[in-house]
Amino acid sequence: AISLVTSQLGFLNLVLAVIVDNAAEAREASKEEKSAEHKRMQAQSFAMWADVMKRLDADHSGTIGLDELMQGYTDPTVKRMLDDMGIDRTDLKTIFNLMDTDDSGELGYHEFIHALM
After folding, report:
1. How much is the CA Rg of the chain, to the nearest whole Å?
2. Bridge-partner residues for 108, per DSSP?
3. How confident is the model over 99-110, as pLDDT tens digits?
């Protein structure tokens, strides 16, 4: 009788180990899916901001100045995107100056996008 109980406990322990292992694998797959989704969203956001930068770049120099950024805030798409980030028109000069670390008065597309993200 004791050997039967021991066998049953051993079998239950084995079943529990399989269940726990399957749960761990599912959790790991979920982490990988979340990471892939995050990377996809980040790439999509980067592409969207690159498009916005091209729209802001009035002189097509590959950079934007403070005046172009301020003028760009009148574009409904740009305004909505910045508003969604909690950035309003009064913040733009301060943010621009913080991003312009070399004091050139211009921000390259990637410089601007990386600073926002």
Report:
1. 27
2. 63
3. 888 889 999 887
What does the chain come to in residues?
A: 117
Tell me if 87 sits within 8 A of 73, measured CB to CB: no
- What DSSP letter does each residue of 80-109 carry, written as one string? HHHHHTT--HHHHHHHHHHH-TT--SEEEH
Answer yes or no: are the C-beta atoms of 56 and 78 closer than 8 Å.
Answer: yes
Q: How far apart are CA 110 and CA 117, in angstroms?
A: 10
How confident is residue 71, by pLDDT bands cut at 50, 70 and 90?
Answer: very high
- Only one residue has tokens 């309003």, namely 88
Beta strand residue intervals within the chain, DSSP E: 63-65, 106-108
Biggest CA–CA distance in the chain, Å, is 89
CB atoms within 10 A of CB 6: 10
